[in-house]
Structure formats: structure tokens, C-alpha cells
Amino acid sequence: MSLRERWRRFRRRGDPVTTADEGQDHLLRAADSLRALLDDASIPAPVRASLAADYSRIELMLDKLENGHVHIAVFGRVSVGKSALLNALLGDAAFQVGVLHGTTTRAEHQAWREVQVQGVHLIDTPGINELSGEEREALAFDVAGRSDLVIFVVDADMTSVEVEALQLLARSQRPLLLVLNKADRYTATERDALLARLAEHSRGIVAPQNIVAAMAQPVPQRVLKVLPDGREVEEERSREPDVSALRGRILAILEAEGKTLAALNAALFAGRLSDEIGTRLTAIRHDLAARTIRMYCLGKGVAVALNPIPVADLLAAATLDVALVMHLSRIYGLPLTRTEAGRLLTTIAAQLAALMGAIWGIHLASSALKIASAGLSTALTATAQGALAWYATLLVGRAAENYLAHGKSWGERGPKRVVADIVQSLDRDSVLREAREEILARLKG
To answer: Which is deepest, 104, 152, 232, 287, by most CB within 10 Å?
Structure first.
């Protein structure tokens, strides 16, 4: 059973899904995945530089794994009592609690002394619905994404914002606990009804036994006191917080899954970073390929425009196109031999010839004009033919890049459909106009 499958089961049923040995194995594998990302020499320096913050985070996460630390974050809208809930778990007023909205403006964390031997840290986050608090909300989501276990706190039936936030967190595959705080405001019947509603909202996301009630900061109880003289007076009597159900679930999960919690978080992060690296690599390769194709388009366009001999035109075109294909193959890390590049070029040219026979006719006619002028072609004729050569190379380059970007494959659609789509995606007149202007500028220069 994979790590993700285990946590799907945990979300549905809330049962322990790993043994101590399995948890340690998950931890070691997650650490290995992070080290592999750090040590991957194939990642280009520009990609590594653009992800510097993520690489720093890998270092911190490795340290966290090696020390067996687990991070637990509270999450929820403003004023549901997140800070008070953590203080009640800690048994200490470590987190700031206030009556104003947005008292917590940045992520804060404290070691949980009760389970400090396991290196458990509790993290407070800003409220998700603070008005004009987009930055705080983004921070809250970021901290939750870095945490191993998330406690989602509500104080009533869930709002649409809370339901959406819970679903978003579920997509991040973080283990979740759902807590109805301020339960002292409700009668036993009302509390049971609210817990049932929370179970409906979180079906398939939070296991029923991971939905609990808590009283982090109970309101004082008003009692009637009879004085010695018989007079009756009201007085307030403070009540102790009650987070026993939440504490019990957290400790049970930590005992059964503590190491796997941290391993899951690390594995998910490693997967996301790998995807991000892949995306950055693709973007860099595409950008470099575009610059390379343009360089060959210009080189071929000028060469064809300057060369008065038709056969030499065609030979120069073929040689440059083969060189272009080989150059692109190195950019995508899939080097082709000259023979392989020639075969790929033949495939692309065959599709282009079928689609654009008229263009090649114009190309040959333009070459014939050069013979008629005894090699003294006019700028108009030269730039027209050079522009067509530019356009042809652009098509060849785009088609070859598509083939290489898909791992030397045309995919299910085959070369005919791929090449046809590339032809349709380009505004030929605009390309030819730009090519003529650039070639003419180079010729004048």
C-alpha cells in the first residue's frame, strides 16, 4: 500500500495504518527523496537559482525529519479561537489571544512540552477570512501546506468559505482534524446536531472520529449565591478549558503515525518540487529552443537570399535544417545522430510538402529568377526567397521541438496532425513580413 493510499484510508476511517517499522521506512524514503533533489546534478543552475527558497526549505525539512519533529497547525477563520485552543493544549498562554479580529498576524509556533520527546510543535496561523488580509490568508495556507497535521477549527456550522478552505486543504492531502470550538455556547442537543452537520460537510475528507468538540476558553458561568443574610447575588465563576477529546485524538495519531506524518509531508513536498522543476525546465528549454530556432531562421534566410545558385540554396537549406534538429535534440537532452536528425527532417518535410506544395513551388520559381538575372538578384527577389526559407525553417524547428518535447514521440495524433496544427497556428503573412524586414536589414548592414 502506497503512502498516499494509506492516507486516503486514514481520511476515510481514521484508523492507524502503519506500524513503527513502516513509519521509520517511510521516514527514510522521504529523506532519500529530498536528498536526491538536493544532489541532482542534472538540474541547470538557472532552475536551481529560481527555486532557491524551495531548496532552502528542503534543508530545513531534512533537519526536521532527522530530528523526528512533527508540526501541527491550526487553521480557520478569524476569531474561532485558534490561539486559545493551542494555549489550552499547551497548558500555557504562549499564543496571543485577543478580542479584536486578526490578533494573529503571522505564523507562530511553540514546542508542546507534553509530547516534547517527540519534537511536536504547534503552529498558530492568521484567520483565513480577515478583511483586507489576503497576505495573511496566503500565509495561513502556506503554513498549513508545510505542516504534518492540520487542525481545522470552527465555532458553528461551517460557512461556504470554510467548506471551500477545507476542500482545498483536502486536495493538499494533509491529514485533518475538525474541531468545534466554543462548544460551551451550545446545549448538548445543539452540540450533537452541529457535530453531525460538520460530519456532513467533511464526508470523505475527515474521518468521523477526527471530528471533536472543545472548549478552549469557556465563558464564565453565572451562578446564584445566597449570602448569610439571606440575600441572593449573581457571580461569575470561571471554568477550566476542555480539550481532552482533541488531545486524545492528536496523541493517538502521533503514537500510531507520528513518523509517517512527517514522511507524508516530505514526500508530497518532494513531489511538488519535482513537478515545479519539470515545469521550469520545460519553460527554459522552450525559451532556449525558440531563440535557437530564430537564430537558424535568420541564418538560413540570409544564406538563401545571398546565394544565387539554386542547387546550393537547397543544399544549404537541408544542411542548416539538420543542424537545427540536432541542436534542438541537445537542448531537450535527447541527442540525435546526423542520420536520425535527417530521418526526422525527412518525415517533417514530407508532411510540409503535402500541406504546402504551392509554397515550395514559389521557392523554386524564385531560384529560377536568380538564374535569369545571372546571379545578380534584386533585393526584392532575394528577401522574398529568404523569407520563405525562414518560414520553412520555423515550421521544421517547431515540429522537431514538439517531437522532442514529447520524448521523441509524435503521440497518438502522428506527425501529419502535429505538423498541420503547427502550420495553422502560425500567421504566415506576419512571419514572412517580419522575415523580409529582418533579412533586408541584415543585407543592408
So the answer is: 152
